[in-house]
């Protein structure tokens, strides 16, 4: 087998940047965004095409220790799959230099973008900072590896393997991603992105292995902090999802679902059997859990998160094995799952929402991450089976309020200085596991009724598991519509039912419509039919019956 060599665009990406700049140095100095766009296009064309993806040629730095990161060759291209944790105040960089060769007197323009600094050749001297001598704004974001990524997903991304027991290294340092020439304007805190850029640690003004103390001088493009890991970003992509084998494009994702061997109906049946096995044969609980797993926020109106479908499975047996099997199964089919064991002690001590704090000895502030600071489409399971008696302190009360606001409104308040809070919009499906009434109010409560009549799915075929993983991501991208005749029939039925029973509320109709959406797309369909609507009404009727029997409201 031939040894795979590293492409020159990976080992020497700045060569490409400099060649692009040389093609129109005067024009690019007048408009740095044109240079940034040209560089993005050049590397995007190398990373992927309409039919192929070559990002695997770029070394992935997730999971590497600080020592391993420092061993990466300077100015080589790397990629980082991450979540934006915080944003630094705006800073400025010098994008272009005018350099004179002292012997000949010739002056040339040099690009200083996408790098910490420029190393001058012997006999060169900077005579001006660009044609206009102006500094350009640089956006810097603090990024961390994607939190709570499932072991199977992380292993494939990092090593190409399907399984891994290696936990994510919590000591991996925070990376500061620098965006140039108005790049990254749409990237926000909590966003999940894949960055392609040049990794650096050292101060460009200090000697390095590539440039000894007696070599040519270096000109810093912007101030850097000592021992800080930086990534000067050439290109980035929003992570629509974190599945390791699906493209980051809706059209291509849906196209893969039409390939031979994949059937929404068949995979749904396999997933139902798996979930029934986890719930000891409870088909109703499995149905609601399946619909919850494919839920997401698809719109916001009147301050409401449309698509939010938190689920409380109550009547959970006090059995560690039962809960461990359920959560283990979910981690094996979801790409990201966070589990929070709720107790008086954990609520009273945990930091749920991010909190701004002052850095001692400086005038800077930093955002301390909270447990709920998660990228969209991360699933959160609240395990209340360990809840004991006791009193919540101030921290515990604040944490419970943060959980309730996330469950109800899909918002998380970031705590800034001087008591100021800013709500951030979230998209985190929340599953609550409890024995009785939960501390967190969920609109949809399903009392479990295990009957033990489930097929043992502990050793499902790996191909089926892989298709379930694909299914759970793909269905989120299906279009959906309600035909006019169905819409009219639903409204008329609601009006008639409410006249007969005033306890029926618009919230009930809203939940039925949400369930109808998820029931439809869960079968791979995009148009609501009478059959799917009747199935939803049957589910809600059975759930209502169980709630009356258990006395839970």
TrEMBL record:
It is found in: Nucleus. Keywords: Nucleus. It comes from the Eukaryota. It holds the Pfam family MCM_bind. GO terms for cellular component: nucleus. One of its GO terms (molecular function) is chromatin binding. One of its GO terms (biological process) is DNA-templated DNA replication. The keyword Nucleus applies. Its main location: nucleus. Belongs to the MCMBP family. This is Mini-chromosome maintenance complex-binding protein.
